[in-house]
Design brief:
single chain, 6 helices, about 75% helix
Length: about 110
């Protein structure tokens, strides 16, 4: 359950402080990757992992803005989640990917 303090905060403060949706997305993608290992070719598995992370990221992003009772600018969700997946695929660790994508999204959408 969301605390009253979290509801009154702007979504960016809520997002920038925790980025829980990115952490959860990455963790669930890792679990999904283990479940699929050995069952599908590497390229198909990578695409599947990317789709899982993206879907979870989008759901978490939406939940964060809903919890803050705000509406994200159009396209911000897909931009931030695509950035996160790209950063992870380039070898960034979770914290770096979160930080980089948060900063890029804030700059791009002037929030």
């Amino acid at each position: 359950m969301t605390s009253p303090a979290a509801v009154s905060q702007s979504p960016l403060k809520l997002i920038s402080r925790s980025c829980w949706w990115l952490q959860r997305s990455a963790a669930l993608a890792a679990v999904a990757g283990l479940a699929f290992s050995g069952l599908v070719p590497d390229q198909a598995r990578a695409q599947s992992d990317d789709m899982v992370v993206t879907r979870l990221c989008l759901a978490g992003f939406s939940a964060a803005f809903q919890a803050a009772r705000q509406v994200a600018p159009p396209g911000m969700n897909t931009y931030a989640c695509s950035c996160f997946v790209d950063q992870i695929n380039q070898g960034s660790d979770l914290a770096s990917a979160q930080s980089t994508c948060r900063e890029r999204a804030i700059a791009r959408y002037r929030m």
